[in-house]
Each structure stands twice: as structure tokens, then as C-alpha cells.
Write a structure and sequence with these properties.
22% strand; two-stranded antiparallel ribbon; alpha+beta; 74 residues
Length: 74
């Protein structure tokens, strides 16, 4: 499913960005990729729906659970 979605996003003619994800949790080095479901590369494009999973800027309302749509890739 992930490969299908990646190909579909790349064919959209919208800017696409690939973000390498890294797990930096306390026990992250103790598990292998076979033991957990980690996304190695997160592919985003204009129009993609996103949701924050942690507070990053509380004063501006960028808090856990906030959802929005990507409008531009810089």
C-alpha cells in the first residue's frame, strides 16, 4: 500500500517532499524494523492531510491532535 501511495503522489504534478524519519525514543535502538511499524520515509505533497502527534508550539495552537492540509512545500 505504501509503495502504491508513493507512486500516486509522485505522479500528481504537485511538489512532493520526502522526509527521512528517525525514531529517537529511549528504547529505539533496542528494536529492529521487523519488530515495529516505523515509516522509513514520509512522503508529503500539497493537499495531503496531516495531524500533529505532539505539541510543537502551544502558543500558536500547534498542539497534539491539530489537523490541517499542506498548502505549500518550501
Amino acid at each position: 500500500m505504501g509503495k502504491y501511495n508513493a507512486i500516486w503522489l509522485c505522479n500528481l504534478l504537485w511538489p512532493v517532499v520526502v522526509i527521512k524519519s528517525v525514531d529517537i525514543g529511549i528504547s529505539a535502538q533496542k528494536v529492529t524494523s521487523n519488530q515495529c511499524d516505523i515509516i522509513q520515509n514520509l512522503i508529503l505533497c500539497i493537499g495531503a492531510k496531516v495531524m500533529l502527534t505532539q505539541n510543537i508550539w502551544v502558543e500558536l495552537g500547534l498542539v497534539n491532535g491539530t489537523t490541517d492540509t499542506i498548502e505549500d512545500v518550501i
